[in-house]
Amino acid sequence: MLNVDNTKWEQELDEFGVEGIPHFAFLDKEGNEEGNVVGRLPRQYLLENVDALARGESTVPHARVVGQYSSTEGRRVHQVADPRSHG
Protein backbone atom coordinates (compact mmCIF):
# COMPACT_ATOMS: atom_id res chain seq x y z
CA MET A 1 0.00 0.00 0.00
CA LEU A 2 1.40 3.37 -1.04
CA ASN A 3 0.25 6.81 0.04
CA VAL A 4 0.18 8.95 -3.13
CA ASP A 5 0.53 12.12 -1.04
CA ASN A 6 3.87 11.02 0.44
CA THR A 7 7.06 11.77 -1.52
CA LYS A 8 8.71 8.67 -0.07
CA TRP A 9 6.76 6.61 -2.64
CA GLU A 10 7.51 8.67 -5.79
CA GLN A 11 9.77 5.98 -7.27
CA GLU A 12 7.16 3.25 -6.78
CA LEU A 13 4.35 5.47 -8.10
CA ASP A 14 6.38 5.99 -11.28
CA GLU A 15 7.46 2.35 -11.50
CA PHE A 16 3.88 1.06 -11.36
CA GLY A 17 2.40 3.93 -13.39
CA VAL A 18 -0.05 5.02 -10.71
CA GLU A 19 -2.34 7.60 -12.30
CA GLY A 20 -5.47 7.03 -10.26
CA ILE A 21 -6.60 5.61 -6.96
CA PRO A 22 -7.35 3.00 -5.97
CA HIS A 23 -4.63 1.27 -8.00
CA PHE A 24 -3.92 -2.41 -7.33
CA ALA A 25 -0.76 -3.96 -8.76
CA PHE A 26 -0.71 -7.77 -8.68
CA LEU A 27 2.82 -9.10 -8.09
CA ASP A 28 4.07 -12.66 -8.43
CA LYS A 29 6.27 -14.20 -5.74
CA GLU A 30 9.38 -12.71 -7.41
CA GLY A 31 7.88 -9.21 -7.23
CA ASN A 32 7.11 -8.91 -10.95
CA GLU A 33 3.89 -7.15 -11.89
CA GLU A 34 1.44 -9.55 -13.51
CA GLY A 35 -1.35 -7.02 -13.94
CA ASN A 36 -3.12 -4.09 -12.35
CA VAL A 37 -6.58 -2.72 -11.90
CA VAL A 38 -7.48 0.92 -11.33
CA GLY A 39 -10.64 2.30 -9.87
CA ARG A 40 -13.85 0.96 -8.45
CA LEU A 41 -14.40 -2.54 -9.77
CA PRO A 42 -16.30 -5.65 -8.72
CA ARG A 43 -14.78 -7.38 -5.68
CA GLN A 44 -14.74 -10.59 -7.71
CA TYR A 45 -12.02 -9.14 -10.01
CA LEU A 46 -9.66 -8.71 -7.05
CA LEU A 47 -10.47 -12.13 -5.61
CA GLU A 48 -9.94 -13.90 -8.94
CA ASN A 49 -6.61 -12.13 -9.50
CA VAL A 50 -5.33 -12.96 -6.00
CA ASP A 51 -6.52 -16.55 -6.37
CA ALA A 52 -4.69 -16.94 -9.71
CA LEU A 53 -1.44 -15.68 -8.17
CA ALA A 54 -1.86 -17.93 -5.13
CA ARG A 55 -2.21 -20.92 -7.48
CA GLY A 56 1.02 -19.89 -9.23
CA GLU A 57 -0.60 -19.06 -12.56
CA SER A 58 1.53 -17.00 -14.93
CA THR A 59 -1.26 -14.50 -15.67
CA VAL A 60 -4.21 -12.99 -13.86
CA PRO A 61 -7.71 -13.03 -15.40
CA HIS A 62 -8.22 -9.27 -15.00
CA ALA A 63 -4.79 -7.94 -15.95
CA ARG A 64 -5.53 -4.42 -17.19
CA VAL A 65 -8.90 -3.14 -16.05
CA VAL A 66 -9.93 0.46 -15.39
CA GLY A 67 -13.04 1.51 -13.49
CA GLN A 68 -14.12 4.76 -11.86
CA TYR A 69 -11.17 6.34 -10.02
CA SER A 70 -9.76 9.52 -8.48
CA SER A 71 -6.91 11.10 -10.44
CA THR A 72 -3.53 11.56 -8.75
CA GLU A 73 -2.69 14.61 -10.89
CA GLY A 74 -3.98 17.25 -8.49
CA ARG A 75 -2.59 15.59 -5.39
CA ARG A 76 -0.92 17.55 -2.60
CA VAL A 77 2.52 16.12 -1.93
CA HIS A 78 4.00 16.24 1.57
CA GLN A 79 7.49 15.50 2.84
CA VAL A 80 6.92 13.06 5.69
CA ALA A 81 9.08 10.45 7.38
CA ASP A 82 6.44 7.79 8.05
CA PRO A 83 5.54 6.04 4.75
CA ARG A 84 1.99 5.38 5.97
CA SER A 85 1.43 8.97 7.05
CA HIS A 86 -1.31 10.94 5.31
CA GLY A 87 0.62 14.17 5.56
UniProtKB/TrEMBL annotation:
It comes from the Eukaryota. SUPFAM superfamilies: Thioredoxin-like (SSF52833). Residues 68-87 are annotated as: Disordered. InterPro entries: Thioredoxin-like_sf (IPR036249), TxlA/HCF164 (IPR044241). GO terms for molecular function: oxidoreductase activity, acting on a sulfur group of donors, disulfide as acceptor. Residues 73-87 have a biased composition (Basic and acidic residues). One of its GO terms (cellular component) is chloroplast thylakoid membrane. One of its GO terms (biological process) is cytochrome b6f complex assembly. This is Thioredoxin domain-containing protein.
